[in-house]
Amino acid sequence: MVELIERLIGKGYDVSIFDREVALARPFGSNKRYIEHVIPHVSSLMKPSPVDVVADAEVIVVGKKTREFANIVAGLDGGKTVVDLVRIAADTEQLKCNYEGICW
Fold first, then answer.
1. pLDDT tens, 15-53?
2. For 76-88, how does the pLDDT look when each residue is reduced to its tens digit (9 = 90+)?
3. Which of 14, 80, 97, 103 has its Cα between 20 and 30 A from that of 55?
4. What are the CA-CA distances from residue 28 to residues 22, 37, 48 (Å)?
5. From CA 34, how far away is CA 30, in angstroms rounded?
6. Nearest to 96 by CA among 82, 76, 72
7. What is the pTM of this model?
8. Domain spans in the chain, listed from the N-terminal domain onward
């Protein structure tokens, strides 16, 4: 995911991130050094909740399979695009957003 974030930023996209595990664990050791080297401004990209990330987003990339994210994707309207890397949606035909599942 860090590599994807780096590429999106490099292409000029505005990126916002929510990852409960990163927020709770606070990266350390080699993980922290890697993140600080590849995307040193990661803390400024972090949002306090997935709702904060989705609010202003045109495209949402789902990289973690949790019920919380599944509920958010299920509630999105047609103005949002979801790129799903983890098969978060059980029934994609019921979704109202533009949905693309890849890598599964």
1. 999 888 765 445 567 767 776 777 677 777 888 888 999
2. 988 899 999 999 9
3. 103
4. 10, 13, 19
5. 6
6. 76
7. 0.77
8. 1-47, 49-104
